[in-house]
Amino acid sequence: MRIQRQTSGRKGKGVCLITGLDLEDKALNSLASELKRKLGCGGSFKDGVIEIQGDNRGFIKQILEQKGFKVKLAGG
């Protein structure tokens, strides 16, 4: 699983993309909802990728590691 920050095509607003999850769509959607609730921010789930608004990579990594996922920060 990788977490990367992306700003291209978003008018300078950053989002964190979470990719590489081997879960079903229903489980990914509930995970996205849980992350949004814990971080207090918006986001979405599209095509197997979870998008979380803002640069919360550190917090996302902590939450996912507590759930037992192996997480790697990708990109700058």
TrEMBL record:
Signal peptide: none annotated. InterPro entries: DENR/SUI1_TIF (IPR050318), SUI1 (IPR001950), SUI1_arc_bac (IPR005872), SUI1_dom_sf (IPR036877). It comes from the Bacteria. SUPFAM superfamilies: eIF1-like. Keywords: Initiation factor, Protein biosynthesis, Translation regulation. Transmembrane segments: none annotated. GO terms for biological process: formation of translation preinitiation complex; regulation of translation; translation reinitiation. Residues 2-68 form the SUI1 domain. The keyword Protein biosynthesis applies. CDD domains: YciH_like. GO terms for molecular function: mRNA binding; translation initiation factor activity. Belongs to the SUI1 family. This is Translation initiation factor Sui1.
